[in-house]
Design a protein that fits this description.
- The complex is a heterodimer of chains A (491) and B (235).
- Chain A is mostly helical and 491 residues long.
- In chain A, 78% of the residues lie in helices and 2% in strands.
- Chain A starts with a helix and ends with a helix.
- With 235 residues, chain B is an all-alpha fold.
- Helix content of chain B is 74%, strand content 0%.
- Chain B has 11 helices and no strands.
- The chains are: A mainly alpha (491), B mainly alpha (235).
- Chains A and B meet through helix 1, helix 4, helix 5, helix 6 and helix 7 of A and helix 1, helix 2, helix 3, helix 5 and helix 9 of B.
Chain lengths: 491, 235
Amino acid sequence: MHLLPLTALLPITAGALAPALFYRRPDACWWWALAAMLANLIAVSILWFELHTGTTIRYPLGGWPAPYGIELVFDGVAALMLVLAALSVAIMIASRRYINATIPKGRRSLAYALVLINLGGMNGFVAAADLFNLFVFMEIFSITAYALVALARGPVAALAALKYLLVGAVSSLLVLLAVALLYAQTGSLNMADIAARLAAADAPGASALALGCLVVGFLVKAAIFPLHFWLPDAHASAPSPVSALLSGLVVKMGVVGLVRTRILFVEADVVPVVLLDQLLVWLGAIAVLAGAVLALVQRELKLMLAYSTVANMGYIAVGLGLATSAAVGGALAHTVYHAVIKTGLFLTAGSILLCTGLSRVDDLRGLGQRMPLTCGALVLGLLAATGIPTTAGFVGKWQIAVGALEAGQPWVVGVILAGSLLTLSWAIRVINSLFFRPPARARVIIADEAPASLLIPSVVLALLAIAGGLGGAVLLELVEPLTTRIVGQPS
Amino acid sequence: MRSGLALLVVVLLAGLMMAGVSQLPPPGAPDSAVHGHVAATYIDGGAEAGGAPNLVTAVLLNYRAFDTYGEVVVIFAALIAVLAVGLAGRPIRSPRQAPTVPVSPVVDQVVRLLAPFIALFALFMILEGHVLPGGGFQGGVVLGTLIILLGLVLSPRRLRHLLPHKAVFWIRSAAVLTFACTALTGLALTGWLFALPEPHWLGESVIVGLELAIGIGSAFAVAGFFLSLEADRHR
């Protein structure tokens, strides 16, 4: 049980120690960071087994009971920590070569420190049962994310990081305003306690404003259209392992925030959440189409992947907004599976970028002959992203489509199909370029297969992505208790 | 046209926010929820339960210690972010190319004269923070500002070479690491992470130690921001 706060404490402490211990020995720092992430994975796995053998784990910090002290909770939402922990290990294995190649020696330990603190912040965020605590840990993972984007060299990365910082800071302030509004009405910061006391405050306008601020704040973090504009540049120009971390894991924190907000306001029952649901469906539907079309017109591989993240966050928003148990289950499954797919895709794209130095799809022609395993992993990931049956991307999209029919909004099915077809068309463009075109660049002809530390995470994640659909039923069963909490009581 | 549209949006949003905020109970109303629920329990429990005569400190370092830990981590992460992102790594231009204005003798003397008093006041704020207004963050910022002042007078280069490079990173992470240690001490002595240990004098000394660590951490963060900016000027 004491492991729950340790999931935040352990990576952060390891991150704080990293520059002090390894400033002059950055190579040893990689082992240190990897060890911390493996320890975190073990701790989270133990918590996960406890959750599935018993009940929800609650931890009152300092021994102060819930509304008086801060409470951490390991429930269905916090179970996302297992995905964070496992994928961050894969990212850390792949980042060694990338960080050695792109970041000057004196700053490598700082980069590892930022990644570790980022992970600790995300762990604290998903486990927070206290609204202000949620805000504090959101700041921890946000600040480190801005800096990680800026670690990449070049004017695009600097500008993207600045844009990310400004937009992110505004969204954080909106969340803080909402915390203040809810505290002024209830005198409490614990989310369950707020939900119980909000009706008594009898200030629906202030509650609605708090709901609006929370939703807009988390929509920015989740990069839902039209608040996605910071994402493509930031995710495409960051160092590739950081892109994987941001696009796979950090944007999912916005979804976690939306889910926590929705649970709070469904329980409080002061403001109807129907309006929020409709908003999510419409914005998500536009995001699916806009993200897929914009991905189609890109020339850079990483920009395509970044716009594909915009589209996929759209699917998740649609699923949450439809608010039927099938659709919400689909959205949660897609949150998990998109994390796997996109982490794998960005790591694979990163190893192509590192081995060839080329990033434009047209320049990568014929690379399939020189780097068959890496390119194969990329193809598998792309197929999973389109949502072909039995791949990981299929489960969520299918469930969301079923949910749309249940909710009586059949047009959503059309949007989902159109999004998948558009994704397929740019995926085919990439596949065609890699495997069926003669090489156009000398660097492609002399390229060699990626080294094992880059190859193994890519291939493992690609296999998970392509076979993930087979485990869809298990995953949907796992998220089911959470689904009923999000949907609320059937009325 | 564009700025007019922006103004319209801002006015609309501000109106919405004002409308929402206007429904809140007026500040200071004795029967509002803010004063009745959790805060009332803190006050009833008093200094005895909170572990510090200053209730604000009790909330910060005892009831809601985990939040304060998070804030300390935010400051540390911001410092690491600045150090990692700054232009560090590029070659430093020779100082001749960066002309510096000599410090006026009046400023020089005044800073030298005031420095011990400022340091004493910062230390007072840090160490008495659990009894009086003040505390680690405030005292730390005063101390950090003093370091910046001394850096301006003595030249940042001398400041930079005052401490060995390695020690600086240990001191910078002092607050985060001390917090982690007290969290584990709490676990060992009371069974809960982030709990203050039981005998009153022990809990109070843990609070003083935490305040000191937060003060040093904040001071070095503020000074680190300044030194990083100053270094970028020469690149």
